[in-house]
Amino acid sequence: MSEQSPAQVRRPKRRDIDGVLLVDKPGGQSSNGVLQRVRFLLNAAKAGHGGTLDPMATGLLVVCFGEATKFSSSLLEGGKAYEGEMILGVRTDTGDAEGAVVETADLPAQMPDPAELARPFIGRIVQRPPVYSALKHEGKPLYEYARAGAPVEAKLREVTIYSLELSYLSADRIRFVVECSSGTYVRSLAEDISRSLGTVGHLCALRRIRSSAFRIDAATAPDALEQMTMDQREARLLLPDVLVADLPACTLDAPSALSICRGQTVGAPVGTPDGRLRLYDDAGIFLGVGTLEADGHIHSNRLLATESRAGGGSRDNPLN
After folding, report:
1. Catalytic residue among 16, 18, 24, 54, which?
2. Is 147's pLDDT higher than 50?
3. Active site includes 172?
4. Same fold flag, 12-77+214-240 and 83-203
5. CATH assignment of 244-308?
6. Strand-pair partners of 128
């Protein structure tokens, strides 16, 4: 019997998997590359992630599978936390260590107290995103213009810095821990801090330690996933409703659950709070997200597909 060629060896059909996996992204790899590797390890049909990390950066990448992708917008809109380091005296075209040096400057003769240096950057601030970013201009990411030698300057935008702790490691290196709103560019923040010192600078290390309510200590590295059995990998999956855990829960009786899943509005149980809700049937199965409107009825927003409601994944809470 002749051996099969690689083209004749078929990979098993990708599986419909619904859940959330917290991944510790290694440095030097793109977010999409890590996503595809993890998707391969679980042989999943559909996957996406809740917020890109630059290739240089490490840390928390929240990967959503199947029906969980319907609720990933909460990750994109949620706050983030990072720890990292910046180097003074050298500016790069990308704002980080992967770029080419475009400017050098003298180091500050004297450094202020770290808390005083941080204070002007805490709260609502205005920053300009880097020219090497995924923001779109006329349908194309800004980094495509920059790589083509025709960089486009992004518009100023408001972001919120909830907390910023700085410490000096050496005359030219500052360590930081920052909690910030979605849309914050830490590369721009590092450049702005350097500018406030009368010099230039760039980001040399970055690690995301929180995304929305998820934290890095619950994440698993891709290399560790590769050493696991399929059952062990699946045991790391969290149920899709962890993505909307901040919404009040509402349990519907069997007739109401059936109606809402058919796209109909239903009367709200007594005591249901106004606004968006996590919807469950009386067996505790997550149905999706709905809204209690002023008319006293719950209207569905996003629902899981029928076959996904029995769901797999773990109910272990990674948010504490």
Report:
1. 54
2. yes
3. no
4. yes
5. 2.30.130.10
6. none
